Amino acid sequence: MPTTVAKYRYITKDTMIHGGEPVIIGTRFPVRSVVFYTVKEGMLPEELVKEFPQLTLAAIYEALSYYYDHRDEIDSLLAVGKFTVL
What is the layout of strands, in order, in the sheet containing 23-24? Predict the structure, then answer.
């Protein structure tokens, strides 16, 4: 059953989507992918919205906020190679 992560309007965890890792609500787009494209690859949030129109700027910025609040969790997902190019 999906659960909205406390204090985050656009982030949810659902064991049926990517094993329960945080994703943007209404999509299967993981927070780790937002981090990969923006923080690691230098893509601007506005470019990410153009590339993935199912995302909103608000959701992207909240995913980045989630990352900075839970950096160890997301960095460990990226470090073990748990990344799917969307």
Answer: 3-4, 11-13, 23-24
